[in-house]
Fold each of these.
Amino acid sequence: MSPPTTAQLLAEADSASKTDTKRAEALYKQILSSSTSTPSTSLEDVQQQKAQTLRDQETALVNLGQLYRDQKNAQGVAEVISLSRSFMSSTAKAKTAKLIRTLLDYFNTIPNSQQIQMTHSLETRLVGLQLEALQFKPALVMIDSLLTELKRLDDKMVLTEVHLLESRVYRGIGNLPKAKAALTSSRTAANSIYCPPFLQASLDLQSGILHAEDKDYTTAYSYFFEAFENLSSQGEDDGKALGALKYMLLCKVMLNLPEDVTSLLSIKLAVKYAQLREVESIRAVARAHQDRNLADFQKALRDYKDELSSDPTIRSHLAALYDTLLEQNLLRIVEPYSVIELEYVAECVGQGRQAVEAKLSQMILDKVFHGVLDQGRGCLLVFDEPKPDNTYTAAIETLEQVGKVVESLYAKTVKIA
């Protein structure tokens, strides 16, 4: 005899929910834990059966939440959200967010202040998931709603977390002034309570990231070091500790101190990370930067693409570092010449002519060196740095002094008259 389908279990659970809530609860949980596998051999049948099972699980999830809501069982609603994780990994993000929101709304009918705190905690977690999924707009909408309620309740702990998430969201969309303001609000809330070490480390990490965005790598390094020490001493989250260490190494490279990378990896807390591929990627970048070798830098970016491109912070700063390294290489090539062919310059740096031409134009406009691009001949004309001409300044000063003399003579003639 074949086991009952999810549709059959769902119909049975719906009937039992009016008379035997315990049995209905067990049946809904059985549906949620059921596999989407099917004995059918046809691929089309398999896909249809899988889609039907997911629809039944979604219905069971909502019905189970309603069952707990009617029983005023907040812990049960929270358990439903935990049970939904495996199911939600198979559904679209928009549907997942809507479903979570529906389940969270069930807490509103449970008259207990603890459930309000649980709702805020779950909503904060949802914002974190939206941030990871790069859904910045819905995250900001939920943050605004959360902040209004939290300020009314004066819940400093959750307020600190939400402001920190707000800072990360604004940084993700490139609005640095608002990211800094949100981080300041988060630190203000944290100062009035006992801040757990992990949360303090997260605040330091975000502070370091924002200082790095302002090119203040010295201050950023100190924040990253504090976060790294804090996370390493906790021994709970090696992923975040490793991220802080990578940021520390990146700051050394951006400060033109690539030789410090090796010594930094010899300290006690960093030794266990020294041989990891993530750390080796930054070490390869540091070696290329120390040798000012553009080819090695590009090779490091290719060889460690996953490690260096997955983190937006590292990716953006390495792009700036690559731009600086390209500029230094171009200067080294063109400085000995008064006229040089663009094709030769492009060949020397291993870049396309169009990219080199655009970079040289930018350098000329930024007055990195003085020259003119002759596109007709395909050459770059390099000029010596012009000596400042003080004639204009001297003439202006002379006229000012003459003006004072004329005013003095006029004052004397008035007195004589």
Amino acid sequence: MSIHSHVSTLFLLLLVFLLSGTNAVKGHAFPIKEATVHDFHMAFKQNKLTSRLLVEFYLGEIRKLNPILRGVIEVNPDALLQADKADYERKAKSAESLMGYIATKDKMNTTAGSFALLKSAVPRDAGVVTRLRKAGAIILGKASMSEWAGFRGNCPSGWSARAGQGRNPYVLSATPCGSSSGSAISVAANLAAVTLGTETDGSILCPSHVNSVVGIKPTLGLTSRAGVVPISPRQDSVGPICRTVSDAVEVLDVIVGFDHRDEATRTTSKYIPRGGYKQFLKANGLKGKRLGIVRNPFFIFENGSVLPQVFEHHFRTLRQGGAILVDNLEIANIDVIFGSSGEGAALEAEFKIFLNAYLKELVASPVRTLSDVIAFNNKFSHLEKIKEYGQDILLGAEATNGINKKTLLKLASLSKNGFEKLMKEHKLDALVTPGSDIRHVLAIGGFPGISVPAGYDNKGIPFGICFGGLKGSEPKLIEIAYSFEQATKIRKPPSFKP
């Protein structure tokens, strides 16, 4: 994994949206595992479920499975009180379990998986958390992650000092990917109904694809990053990780919109459609869509892999749904994007600047600068496993002295003359790629992507299919992803194989 392959900055696990009041359950058993947001809506309306029973179920699953999976770093001690309040008020709009790298102004810690930020105090809820609370969200807890969003050193994907090694619930020895590993692990294993993650480069798309869940990486600025431990405002994006496309869209509708603490949301809010995104959950959403296929380098697989056969089958499914596949395309500068784009150097410089600004704003914190974090890690090297994994990326970031504007211009040019040019010249609605291989292309341009479960290899490890598009193309991507999901229905509950 390259330094910036799976960078993310936020992890939230959300339970479910309660759109109507709840009464006492009248003896009706409601199967919570694998239930969708729509299922929960109906159960609340029919008085088959209460907020307390829902929270109790997820807390029980966390107690049972988290010692193995390590997808949850911390549980909200007030979750049951909040559930009781929701039941009492009988007017909550949603109940969700949040876990993460996003600031919450409550009794939980916001630490990026590091002991260096333990007991720090944030000034306020993150922007997306404010929206969730207004929608009636119950904050269940915080998810584990790759420490510092995979931006520390040679740490394994899904590992952090505070949580330990997160595990893929399908094949425990397989990577959970990162850095939004805990969010994907938890929603896949039914430790929560829906979750949030963040992506700088691959951190929603990659965990989603290897944990057989749906991840939406929104257009940069469609969702607020205020209160999220940052890497790069130029690339950071907050999005849902859920078991179904419809659940992910339910969450997306809540968290998008303008936030005065994140200037990027001002211009990007123009992309939000009147009536929200749920209107694009269409079973016939593939009809007439132009989908591009770039064979090299995305569809080059190892000998003996099941992937070539599986994806050719998926191409037939897309065509049967009415899509027009434009095959054998090329992204002119793809070798540069994958090799010498300068993305890693740009992220290091931005990380130092924006992390220092984040730490400075904290109400209380053991560390106030990146230099303090490095010193903490050296002082408590046993806790942070510095000997084993190092902190080379942190050291590289600290050594930077401002952002190289030429590098940023190069990255912008690569996007404009590569992916963007390809999409416009061929009038494509989306580019179709396996797994999260498209992540660098989408990351450097702030473009959106949706990962949907696509199958399981001969070891039982999941893999996904990604639909990526131009800025603001979420409506089309949702139509495509939902239509594909409904035509294939590939996702199955985790198997917990060794």
